[in-house]
Write a structure and sequence with these properties.
488 residues; alpha+beta; Rossmann fold; Aminoglycoside 3'-phosphotransferase, Chain: A, domain 2; 5-stranded antiparallel beta sheet; 13 helices; 37% helix
Length: 488
């Protein structure tokens, strides 16, 4: 569970100490096949396994010259996978400096493994052992753990199975270090109300379930360690095999929002108790409001990160001031809008399809820890203008009509005002996402998100067609980010 692409793991020990047995166990775990044939590479010197995380298993015992290591393709193997090396001392001085080493020796009643490595890898190992201790305290000490796909945040996920029980999911979300102060003595996370611990996820999951919506049941959590063990809602999504939205599933997702928007604004949410926690559990969690400061700091990502990427420069002081004045006016238009609980990331990656259930229970909801109280249009915009899925305009129209028709009889619902709110929230969210995706590339070394920029630009272009956003379109043209309806 600690190994990542680029890791070189050296296995040391005398003959019979279990180096090959350990390598075989690692390869079988990564393959998800306990019976996988893993022959010893004693005579072939290297054995390659084309797994999700590719593995090269090397045995250097018969290496006659250390420089023969170049012919075994170690550097190429570490570009996209890992290397397990038995008898690494045969290639002294030629192995990567940042390597992990497991030294096996006899001990009373078995074997002792001494593990050394670079600080970041040892920290990952320590975290893995913390997770194991948490699972043991929660009654799953011998569970099998496998990695699941993460997201753009620092959170990681694991599948946890203790036969014959059904699989659970572990969320590994340690509190991040405090960010720099950017405004009025506050960090970006504080201004944008981004959660830094697991309390919001736990409290909101319980709240959504109490409302009759499908969020994961919480089995155990440790607030201090940043660990949550929860129900596995499944793997089916709301898009087809080609990544296109399935209209029926999107309609039912909108029905979940309708259910949410008919409910009153929640007060302090009670926190459940957890026997696996190492710290005192707070009694309640209070949901923050999506206020003007939060909206403004988010759209500022557009001019701080996306604009230099798209236009080659950031705005001058006057253009920056104009940008913020336009957005303050748009935010003022939202002042009297309907405000309810908004989940923030209500889109395809976080929606699970459960075809054996009925009604809104067919949609499992994930990733709501940054929920706030704000305009109901926000989550509708999140679903209909998904950064990872192209929702064609005709389908957007049908889905939006479905939502508005369902609320038409409500005396306080004004479809025209809601559609204006939707355009503002669509633009606000698109500008934030464009900035985040460029930041993920430039700051965090995650260039894959750049491929999503054109779709998000198209969604922003749509939003700017609304008359209320024409001043923002004019501003974008003036700084070279948009040229009428053609994205820069």
């Amino acid at each position: 569970m600690v190994l990542r692409a680029g890791d070189c793991l050296c296995l040391r020990g005398e003959i019979g100490m279990g180096k090959s047995s350990l390598a075989r166990a690692i390869i079988r775990h990564l393959a998800g096949d306990a019976a996988l044939d893993v022959p010893s590479p004693t005579f072939t010197l290297v054995q390659h396994y084309d797994l999700t995380l590719p593995v090269d298993h090397l045995d250097l015992y018969r290496l006659s010259n250390p420089h023969e290591l170049d012919e075994l393709g170690l550097d190429a193997a570490l570009e996209s996978g890992i290397a397990l090396i038995e008898w690494p001392e045969k290639a002294a001085g030629l192995l990567p400096d940042k390597r992990m080493t497991v030294t096996l020796r006899e001990s009373i009643g078995g074997h002792m493994a001494e593990i050394t490595g670079p600080p970041d890898r040892m920290a990952a190992l320590k975290r893995s052992l913390t997770i194991r201790a948490f699972l043991k305290k929660a009654g799953h000490g011998k569970a099998e753990r496998r990695p699941l796909t993460g997201d753009a945040s620092s959170r990681r996920y694991e599948s946890v199975t203790t036969p014959p029980q059904i699989p659970l999911v572990l969320m590994d979300a340690p509190s991040p270090p405090p960010g720099p102060l950017v405004q009025d003595g506050r960090s970006y996370a504080e201004i944008a109300h981004i959660t830094t611990d697991i309390a919001p996820f736990v409290a909101l999951s319980c709240h959504l379930r109490s409302m009759g919506l499908c969020a994961p049941a919480i089995h155990a959590y440790d607030g201090e360690a940043g660990l949550v063990l929860m129900e596995d809602l499944g793997r089916k999504g709301v898009v087809d095999d080609d990544g296109a939205p399935l209209e029926e599933r999107y309609r039912i997702a909108l029905d979940c929002l309708l259910h949410l928007h008919h409910a009153p604004v929640p007060g302090p949410l009670p926190m459940p108790k957890s026997d696996a926690s190492t710290a005192t559990t707070p009694e309640n969690y209070t949901v923050a409001h999506f206020d003007a400061d939060a909206m403004l700091i988010e759209v500022s990502l557009f001019i701080d990160w996306y604009m230099p990427h798209a236009a080659g420069h950031g705005p001058d002081a006057r253009k920056r001031q104009d940008f913020h004045e336009i957005w303050r006016h748009l935010i003022d238009l939202l002042a009297t809008s309907e405000k309810k609980l908004l989940l923030r990331d209500f889109h395809s990656p976080n929606l699970i399809w459960r075809d054996t259930r009925q009604g809104t229970d067919r949609i499992g909801i994930l990733d709501f820890q940054d929920a706030m109280i704000g305009p109901t249009a926000y989550d509708v915009a999140s679903l209909l203008h998904d950064a990872r899925v192209t929702v064609e305009p005709d389908l957007q129209t049908r889905l939006l009509d479905h939502y508005c028709d369902a609320r038409a009889a409500e005396p306080t619902f004004d479809a025209a005002v809601f559609r204006q709110d939707l355009a503002i929230m669509q633009a606000q969210r698109a500008m934030k996402i464009l900035g985040i995706f460029v930041r993920l590339d430039k700051r965090d070394g995650k260039p894959a998100y750049l491929a999503l920029l054109p779709r998000v630009r198209d969604y922003l272009d749509q939003a700017l067609d609304h008359p209320a956003l024409h001043p923002l379109r004019k501003w974008c043209r003036s700084v070279g980010v948009f040229d009428d309806h053609n994205n820069a």
